[in-house]
Amino acid sequence: MQLHKRDLVDAATAILDNFGIADLTMRRLARELGVSPGALYWHFANKQELLGAVADRILAPAARSGQSTDHWRDRVGADCHRLRDALLSHTDGAELVSASFAAGQSEAMTHVVARLAEAAAQSGVDAAHAELAARTVVYYVLGFTVDEQSRLQWDAAGADLPESQSALAEDAGQRFAFGLTLLIDGMAVHRDAANRGQPDTEIGCS
Length: 206
What we know:
The chain contains 10 helices and no strands. By secondary structure, it is mostly helical. Helix 1 packs across helix 4. The longest helix is centred in the last third of the chain and has 30 residues.
């Protein structure tokens, strides 16, 4: 059987959804496809490249451009909600994408960051910090969703979580929107401070 990259990504995504990221190994993938592990390396030089391709598959809905005429606040909000929805649509999606993003292996995430950076610049964040603002927002989405998926997995496993932890899982959407609003408001504050000629405020440890 002749294998194509899409076949590998399809099978790898199925393993992820059915068994989780811990079982997504080159050896497991080769076994599922009925080939030797060496055959996989014709298409992907290493596991990191494979995970990057799976990350791009997961992020496909989030990587699509939104309406360019939207206000920058609406664009940031819509992009982040699409990103969270994409991550939640696959088992361990946030963990896998976070790892691929850190390794610079996800082309789709590059597009997401670029679009958020453009919106940050339109908000008034100076060009030198627009990408940093975008990455800060992405880190929030990834971190929040990793935590959210972990809680869902514990709940699915029948773990006896404290009542306070169960409540956090129930209102995850509201908590996500609240945190995202804080970040978006922060961009506006940054812009207003810059317009008044005030230096950026840095919070450090005393």
